[in-house]
Amino acid sequence: MTSIVKTVTRLVVGVIFIYGIYIILHGHLTPGGGFAGGAIIAGAFILLVLAYGSDMLKLKAKEAGSSVMESLAILAFLLMAVVAFFLGTKVFFHNYLPKGIIGDLISAGVIPLYNIAVGIEVAAALFTIFLALVIFKEESK
Amino acid sequence: MEVIISVIIGFMIIGAIFALNAKDLLSAVIACGIVGYGLVICFLLLKAPDLAIVQIVVETITLIFMVAVILDSSSKELNEKRWTHLEGTSYINTRFVVNITTVIVFAGLLLFFFSQAIDVLAPFGQHVTRMSTAYIENGANQTGSANLVTGILFDFRGYDTLGEATILFTAVIGILTILRLKGKQ
């Protein structure tokens, strides 16, 4: 890509990344949540790869990493729900942490943790799909 | 009500078994369609028209995709087997008549069940929102989440969210499997 694209990407990508993290962490307070924030973070990663490019070996390492990350995130999500089953009143997806004051950043029990897990899962899933398509195109040349 | 649903579920089971034992892929896919459209009628009878509409759309699109893929990938055998038109015979034969009659009968059946399901619904503008009202009134206090949507998504409807995350996970696994060129040995 040209230096214009590279410079703009360098300036913008951090802001996009921070914004995605903000959307995920404030999912229980403001509109948004794990799905939306994860998509934004995946967008930041995709922008980086599109602007700077990368050689095949690095892309493959990234694909393996994001694939593992995705599996771990969905496993964490499931484990949190199972822990609720054993700790709480025998209810799957029971909210077992203290709820706190409505409107505080640390409130709503397990919901922020679920949000973080789903956010990581969505971001890694979208980035993995993008990388798989890029690698497929490069390999079939 | 239960009798009708049992009969439809029986049809769905027969369709699923036929799909497993069908001779060619096209018949198997069409038999899978029986399961999907039977589910549409079940949703209608259980007063869930929104789910029924989603199921109709998804089922139709999936069926069209699958039939297109099968016609494209195995078109040679099908062309030889099905669409050979002998000289001197008419296009209108028993098979066409049976096909068109079946389509009309099943379209009429779907419309009949649709009208039955709409009859038992509340009239337009006076919908029953028992669950929504309870969620809106007690959601924030019970979940502790200021954002009601997230509260419902991760607390009351946790199973749905788990399903959505699993769908994404499965999609990624499928894409990684299909788009792998090397390393098949």
Question: What do you see in this structure?
Answer:
The complex is a heterodimer of chains A (141) and B (185). Chain A has 141 residues and is mainly α. Chain A has helices spanning 3-25, 34-52, 56-87, 111-139. Chain A is flat. Chain B is mostly helical and 185 residues long. Chain B has 2 domains: 1-81; 129-185, no CATH class. Helices cover 78% and strands 0% of the residues of chain B. Chain B contains 8 helices and no strands. Chain B has helices at residues 2-21, 25-45, 49-73, 75-81, 94-120, 130-143, 148-156, 158-178. Chain B is flat. Chain A binds chain B through residues 27-33, 35, 67, 70-71, 74, 77-78, 81, 92-93, 95, 99-100, 102-103, 107-111, 114-115, 118, 121-122, 125, 128-129, 132-133, 135-136, 139-140, and chain B through 140-141, 143-147, 149-151, 153-155, 158-159, 161-162, 164-166, 168-169, 171-172, 175-176, 179, 181-182.
